[in-house]
Design a protein that fits this description.
Helices cover 70% and strands 0% of the residues. By secondary structure, it is mainly alpha-helical. This is HTH cro/C1-type domain-containing protein. Pfam families: HTH_3.
């Protein structure tokens, strides 16, 4: 495993910009994707970049262990799925933003914006955090955090009842996310977040065909990547859509039963309460 943080630190200490370091070796975009998104270039390219900085590739190799910050972000992402916003605030309080890499800062601001949006209902603060990601000169418009920030902006305008602006943001996101390659479970979880939010948005617009299409795509993404975290919320929304479109009762009960089972599996008590209320109705 390559220590990307160390690579970036050495480049900056040498006073080299991404353009200067990559000149004649690779494109600046390739280097940016390596530093910010963790996309490792070919061994030939990474070796030449190291040579230019007078270091060896072995200087950058570390054990393939998760960093402390990564572990905290993973916990926060799970807490976001289960609506545990106090736990997210506690995790973020343990992180020093000034010590984060670019992609870690995007993750941090995404979580801050999400808590402001979903729990604190502070649309101004939420928009600030998402715009901090979108306006960062280092971010690529294919970055998952760029897409998450766009999705967040769409949800903000949805809450403002400005459907036209909300749909504008969601359309940009879905044009990209449907073609985005899933590299690992982390990127899968972030893509699932976008798909779920889109499914909820279109359900609220009573466009149930589009909502179900996004939710079913999310369901199969969970299945293909062996991820259960989002299944409860995905199936719960499918149940709500089935009720709204007067689907057969046996299908509705199947959705409710499955949503309850996965919510219990992930100890999502908030969703279990919502499912219980839905079943009573």
């Amino acid at each position: 495993m390559i220590n990307i943080k160390k690579f970036v630190s050495i480049r900056k200490k040498l006073g080299l910009s991404q353009t200067e370091l990559s000149q004649g070796i690779c494109t600046q975009a390739t280097l940016s994707k390596f530093e910010n998104l963790g996309r490792i270039p070919s061994i030939r390219i990474i070796t030449q970049l190291c040579d230019r900085m007078n270091i060896s590739l072995s200087d950058l190799m570390v054990d393939a262990t998760v960093t402390a910050v990564d572990a905290l972000f993973d916990k926060a992402d799970f807490n976001l799925i289960t609506y545990d916003y106090d736990a997210i605030r506690n995790i973020l309080s343990q992180i020093v933003p000034e010590k984060l890499t670019a992609s870690e800062k995007w993750h941090y601001n995404y979580l801050k914006g999400s808590v402001a949006l979903y729990d604190e209902h502070d649309l101004v603060a939420s928009l600030f955090y998402f715009n901090t990601i979108l306006t960062d000169p280092e971010i690529d418009d294919t970055s998952i955090y760029y897409l998450l920030a766009l999705s967040g902006c769409g949800q903000i305008y949805e809450k403002k009842n400005d459907v036209e602006k909300a749909e504008h943001y969601f359309n940009i996101v879905f044009d990209s996310v449907m073609h985005k390659h899933i590299d690992d479970s982390h990127s899968a979880i972030q893509i699932l977040s976008i798909l779920l939010n889109g499914g909820v948005f279109y359900a609220q617009k009573q466009d149930y065909d589009t909502s179900n299409s996004l939710l079913n795509y999310a369901y199969h993404t969970c299945s293909d990547n062996h991820i259960t975290y989002y299944l409860a919320r995905i199936i719960y929304q499918l149940a709500q859509n089935a009720i709204a479109t007067k689907q057969p009762q046996h299908l509705i009960q199947e959705y409710i039963s499955d949503a309850r089972a996965f919510a219990r599996l992930n100890n999502n008590t908030t969703l279990l309460q919502k499912i219980a209320a839905l079943n009573k109705n």
